[in-house]
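Lab notebook page, bench 4
Experiment: in silico fold of construct C2
Operator: M.H.
Input chain length: 243 residues
Purpose: comparison with the prior construct
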Amino acid sequence: MKILCVSDYVDPLIYNQNVKESFSDIDLILCAGDLPMDYVDFIVTVFNKPTYFVFGNHDLKEFHYYHREAPQPPEKFTQTYNDTSHGHGATYLGFKSFIDERFMFDDPVTGKKTPLLIAGVSGSRRYNKGLCQYTDFQMKLKLIKLIPSLIKNKLKYGRYLDIFMTHASPRHIHDHEDPCHIGFECFNWFLQKFKPSYMIHGHIHLYDMREERTGKYWDTTIVNAYAHCIIEFPIKQDPQENR
């Protein structure tokens, strides 16, 4: 399957009326944060494909719809969605895991038909006490809450997770040293323990095309989704790796 990944930038290559013709073979869309929800809405409407999203540390006008603890906006009348609501036709992946049976594929290891296993978290490192910002310890606690569902995946499907989507990056992989853009060390721990095939993140802007977009940590391919990129899943293994 081909997956369109976007984050952090309203890309004119995507935000135009001819985008479906230019990206006609997309099966799934992942929105890795800091995107206006009307842009997510446009993507869902134009592509009409399953779409997942997480929040970043900006563009948080609708964050309170998905998190009861978030401050409510000052408007007189506000609508609060419950935990199962998915606005704009996209599924909120923040601090949740899903078994998506719309995407059945042949497991490269077992050869059996299996659904896509996907999980994600929102937010960045805490740097100014803003909304959707977390210390490394706070984020690790949120990751720990995912473990029961990941263990069920392992028991049923032989693996914990296929795709892990975040906004921030892991520590020392694509991150920067300023307080806002330091990666989460707990993400490194998570990747080492649960070994998803892909980690998709945003948050790190690629102003220089020579900057690395794709990296590797243990068994996981890590992709910076800034603006847009396309990945294929399952990952095609190099025959040399099996020798």
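Observations: The CA atoms of residues 65 and 81 lie 5 Å apart. The chain has five helices and 13 strands.
Next step: discuss at group meeting.
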